[in-house]
Write a structure and sequence with these properties.
Helices cover about 10% and strands about 35% of the residues. By secondary structure, it is mainly beta. It has two domains: about 90 residues, Roll (Chitinase A, domain 3); about 45 residues, Thrombin, subunit H. The structure holds zinc ion (ZN). Zinc ion binds next to loops.
């Protein structure tokens, strides 16, 4: 295989994600890198583009505008009663829930506010409208397995864990 990142490469990444003010939003967990299948839309498009052609050991700083990350905010919110969720559900702000349109198609929304018996849902990803600053190190890569290519995502570091 090629020793640079291209479509269908499984990539192991260490990363720290901050917003424009330097506030940390997310990071890979300790020694455990993020593993993803390149070229299948599993990470935000702007970061995926920046990683093309990189090699193991490469470190890069990538600034990704909202259009190449989680999109611009559309301002769409919706109030639903708490009773629309199952009784024991542990609802938290920022949590993703699935909603349904009139045609019965499901789409993701995020809990924006909890107000007594009302839950305010937002159609925007919590990071919509945010410019993302990634500090990234390529930790490793390998060829994708046939199953990974069929599924369009990586199956863990060694390709043997199946997490569905
Ligand atoms: Zn799978």
């Amino acid at each position: 295989m090629s020793d640079t990142i291209q479509n269908d490469t499984v990539v192991h990444l260490h990363y720290v994600l901050t917003d424009g003010d330097g506030k940390e939003l997310d990071r890979s967990h300790g020694d455990e890198p993020l593993t993803y299948l390149h070229g299948h839309g599993n990470i935000v498009p702007g970061l995926e583009e920046a990683l093309v052609g990189k090699s193991v050991g490469d470190e890069l700083e990538v600034v990704v505008p909202p259009e190449k990350a989680y999109g611009m905010r559309t301002g769409k919110q919706q109030k639903v009663p708490r009773s629309a969720f199952s009784e024991g559900a542990d609802l938290r702000v920022g949590m993703q829930v699935m909603s349904r349109d009139e045609q019965g198609r499901s789409f993701p929304m995020w809990i924006a506010k909890l107000q007594g018996t009302t839950v305010v849902l937002d159609a925007n990803h919590p990071l919509a409208g945010v410019t993302l600053h990634f500090s990234v190190k390529v930790d490793g890569m390998r060829e994708a397995t046939g199953d990974e290519l069929k599924h369009g995502h990586a199956h863990g570091r060694d390709g043997h864990h199946h997490h569905h």
